[in-house]
Amino acid sequence: MTIKIVSAHSDEVWVESTLSIKVVAASLCVAAGGVVAPELVRQAGLALDPLGSGLLSLGAGGVVGLFLAQRVAIRFRQLQRDVSRVSGVDLGAADQRAQGAPRFGLRDEIDHLVENLEAASARLLALMGEINRQTTSVASESEAMFDAVQPLRTGTRGIVDTVAELEKDIRQQHALIEDAKQQIHDMSSAMDRNADRAREAFGFAAEANQTAGTGVEVAQLAVEKMRHVFEGVEQTGAKVFALESKTRHVHQITEMITDVAHRTNLLSLNASIEAARAGEAGRGFSVVADEIRKLSESAGRSADQITSLIHEIQSDTHAVADEMRQSSRDIGEGREDINTLVNSLEAIGRAVGEAATRAEEIFHGADGRLKHAESMVNSMSEIASGVGSTGTEIHQIAQAAQSDLVCAENLAERAEALGRLAEGLAEAVGDLRGHAGQVVVAARTPRTGAV
Questions:
Q1: What is the pLDDT of residue 260?
Q2: Are the CB atoms for 201 and 352 separated by under 8 Å?
């Protein structure tokens, strides 16, 4: 460690040291006193026994220790007075510094602590004065702020009430718009279903119209074919009637052949009789007559078969002719029915075409109404969205107004609290300054006379 000699003024000299150096120096002085004092006594011609030497050493060390302790005690008492001034316990006591202290000495940590504490006391007193002035200003400002916040709080509360009522109305309007939107959406759904059904009906009507047109064409072709059939049946009937007439004529011819065969048979019998009468001369003629008889019999049998067959043909022809007559009557009636059917099919085709046209008109009308309903739904959605956004903004404004009201109330409360705090601080500072007025703060000078 080094010891530095410092001179602040021309008449003051001191040495910077530390408390540990002082303690070591005191210990060395006590030890030196204990060793040197007995030796000095012996040199003076005084005889001391070991007990006397020990007591003398203790006395010398005690004197040195008392001197050092007295110097330290002076500093500690001064430190105690400074602390008392700061704490306010004994602020009215006068500053009692050590008088007659030497103008030189050893300075240690206690000296520095005393000087720093005195400087802090001076700054603290100045700070208390400034605090008192600022406290008065803060009290005035807090009162003015409280008075200014009162109208703001009243106005903000009115805004909060108005915005809350407006938010309630917006919510009711939004609920009504949502209800109307739902109803329009239901109407749009119903129109959509009706449009789908109209579309299906239009498709069915168009298909029915096409089918009816095809049916009319097929019916017309069928009528044409039926006309050809009727004509063919009429021609067949005419041929059947002609065949019946020819069959009667064949029957007449067959009757004539049968009659001729009977007569030929009679003639062959007569010829046979005459040939038998003629004897040998008529034997050849008898053979011819016999052949003629056989031919006449064969012709008679064939004629009978033809007659029988012609009777069957006549019977069948009569039946066919009757059927053809009935068919002709039925065909006549069928022509009228077919004409009626064709007229009905044409009327059905026209009706189906008209129904298809009406269905198309209904479909296009329903489609237009559906688009209009969808536009209304979109418009209501936009309105609902706008009202919702407005409600959200109103709600945000309400929250902001509520926050402003809370802030205004908090500000008023804090202004009141700040006023109360300023009053308390002013009272505390005033009380403290009442004691501080009696304090005499020493100028900051280096402490001297320290050991």
A1: 79
A2: no
With a threshold of 0.85, does the pTM exceed it? no
- Dihedral over Cα of 63, 68, 71, 73: its sign: negative
DSSP state of 451: -
CATH code of 196's domain: 1.10.287.950
Residue 272 included in any domain: yes
Rounded CA gap, 83 and 241, in Å?
A: 164
Q: What's the mean per-residue pLDDT of the chain?
A: 69
Residue 99's pLDDT is 39
Residue 86: inside a domain? yes
Q: Are residues 183 and 75 in the same domain?
A: no
The helix, strand and coil proportions of the chain, stated in percent and rounded to the nearest 5, come to 85, 5, 10
* Residue-wise pLDDT tens digits, 33-68: 666 666 666 676 665 566 666 666 667 666 766 676
C-alpha 349/C-alpha 205 separation (Å) is 11
What is the crossing angle of helices 283-436 and 109-278, to 10°? 170
Q: Measure the CA–CA gap between 196 and 244, rounded to whole angstroms.
A: 67
Residues 78 and 167 both lie in one domain: no
Residue 13 in this model has a pLDDT that exceeds 50 = no
DSSP characters over 193-255: HHHHHHHHHHHHHHHHHHHHHHHHHHHHHHHHHHHHHHHHHHHHHHHHHHHHHHHHHHHHHHH
Please count the structural domains in the chain. 2
Output b/e per residue, 131-152; b: 16+ Cβ within 10 A.
bbeebeebbeebeebbeebeeb
- Domain of residue 65, residue span: 4-107
User: What 8-state DSSP symbol labels residue 440?
Assistant: -
**Two tokens at 241?**
């009637």
Q: What is the DSSP string of 139-206?
A: HHHHHHHHHHHHHHHHHHHHHHHHHHHHHHHHHHHHHHHHHHHHHHHHHHHHHHHHHHHHHHHHHHHH
Residue 205: per-residue pLDDT: 72
Residues 6+ apart with CB under 8 A from 425: 131, 135
Asked if residues 370 and 143 have their Cβ atoms less than 8 Å apart, the reply is no
What are the pLDDT digits (tens) for 206-249? Answer: 777 777 777 777 777 777 777 777 777 777 777 777 777 777 77
Short-list 137, 133, 143, 139, CA closest to 430: 133
Count of CB atoms within 10 A of residue 377's CB?
17
Strands 4-9 and 12-16: antiparallel
**In the predicted structure, residue 159 carries a pLDDT above the cut 70:** yes
